[in-house]
Amino acid sequence: MKILAAGDIHGDLQLVKRLVEKAEKEKVDLVILSGDLTMQEQSTSNLIGPFLKANKKVALIPGNHETTATADFLAQLYGVKNLHGGYLKYKDVGLFGCGSANIGLFQLSENEIYDTLKKGHEGVKDLKKKVMVTHVHPDGSLIGKLTSHFPGSEGVKKAIDKFKPDILLCSHVHEAAGMEETIGKTKVINVGREGKIIEL
């Protein structure tokens, strides 16, 4: 399975165009958008459609710049999967996620973040490989050292410890784009705006 994962698009349609070209060139099976699709709920048009025109499957979560309702609206409008509190199975790979963050306009508490991830994990717990998708990075991560504004999430860290996903895909901290580290047995990747290719 080949994934193109990106986040923090913030309504940038030129960026969407580049990501679609990358998805086509790399022949990915799935595109994952890890939140902050919009800039404070503005500019929702042409964010998902271009991927579908290129015949790419899409899964997304909200960031702290849009509500879960906006992510649900986009998912329903385009027939794609919102992983926030949900899951997606692809062969022997299970994906589950939680959007938003522990700060910002549409923040969640640490308990809400963990409980949302737990709910999604229930649907994929028996699968061979698991990919967790969040907007915010885990507490204590190297990603957090690059910002004094965005605290890591204790809820995400607890989910890593409990569910031991193979990979965590996140974004949120623009300065950490492309950064990779390992926490326990989980590879943590800040996918960044330009996107990362992940092969499973």
How would you explain this protein's 3D organization?
With 200 residues, the protein is an alpha/beta fold. It has a single domain, classed as Metallo-dependent phosphatases (Purple Acid Phosphatase, chain A, domain 2), CATH 3.60.21.10. Helices cover 26% and strands 25% of the residues. It contains five helices and eleven strands. A six-stranded mixed beta sheet has the order 5-6-7-8-10-9, with helices on one face. Strands 4-3-2-1-11 form a five-stranded mixed beta sheet, with helices on one face. A hairpin with a 2-residue loop joins strand 5 and strand 6. Helix 4 packs parallel to helix 5. It is globular. The model has no long low-confidence stretch (mean pLDDT 93).
What distinguishing features does this structure have?
about 200 residues; alpha/beta; Purple Acid Phosphatase, chain A, domain 2; five-stranded mixed beta sheet; 5 helices; about 25% strand
Query: What is the alpha-carbon Rg in Å?
Result: 15 Å
How many domain regions?
A: 1
Q: How far is it from the N-terminal to the C-terminal residue, by CA?
A: 5 Å
Element-level helix/strand string: EHEHEHEEEHEHEEEE
Number of helices: 5
| Proportion in helices | 25-40%
Strand order of the largest sheet: 5-6-7-8-10-9
Question: β content, as a range?
Answer: 25-35%
Please state the average pLDDT score. Answer: 93
**Low-confidence region ranges:** none
